[in-house]
Write a structure and sequence with these properties.
With about 170 residues, the chain is an alpha/beta fold. About 35% of the residues lie in helices and about 15% in strands.
Length: about 170
């Protein structure tokens, strides 16, 4: 199952913490993100909800309202029991959500991570939205451009375990 949406469109009225789209005879897909209400994930939700019906997908969007891997793992364990056929996941931690993702796979539910990955054993595919070395280089180039070549640079991450942000910093 693949979902893709490109372009810019007005926001849908699915709310900030959830949303769903149904198609008759559809594939039941759950999208669980690191934190609901964040513009990045709201835009992804809106694109996926718009694309879902034409792909024969019934999509449910969820995630914790604050960045918490354990809260997300609890949600994932509930999702697994609800008969979803595919799990799309942006994880708060590479390891905290991994047992739930591994359980989903063991039950035959494909796990596709995006934005922030879990350990590879806990998913089938990872969709990376940034080339980490290029992203890291761009950040430093901009810091030098605006702060000068001798500027002190501080990096603030939303979560000390956030896999994508750790990869950007390490790049």
């Amino acid at each position: 199952v693949g979902l893709a949406a490109c372009g810019n469109s007005a926001s849908k009225s699915a709310g900030t913490s959830g949303g769903s789209s149904s198609a008759a005879g559809s594939i039941k897909v759950a999208m669980n993100v690191k934190i609901t209400g964040h513009t990045f994930f709201t835009e992804i939700r809106d694109g996926a909800l718009a694309a879902a019906p034409s792909q024969g997908v019934s999509l449910t969007y969820s995630g914790p309202t604050f960045s918490d891997g354990q809260a997300q793992a609890t949600q994932l364990n509930s999702i697994i029991q609800e008969g979803y056929k595919v799990l799309l996941l942006s994880a708060n931690s590479p390891t905290v959500e991994a047992p739930a993702a591994e359980k989903a796979q063991a039950m035959g539910i494909p796990v596709i991570t995006f934005d922030a990955d879990v350990i590879p054993a806990a998913r089938g595919w990872y969709v990376n939205d940034a080339a980490y070395p290029a992203f890291g280089k761009c950040l430093i180039d901009q810091a030098v451009k605006f702060g000068g070549p001798n500027a002190e640079v501080g990096i603030v991450s939303s979560n000390p375990d956030s896999p994508n942000q750790i990869a950007w910093i390490n790049s």
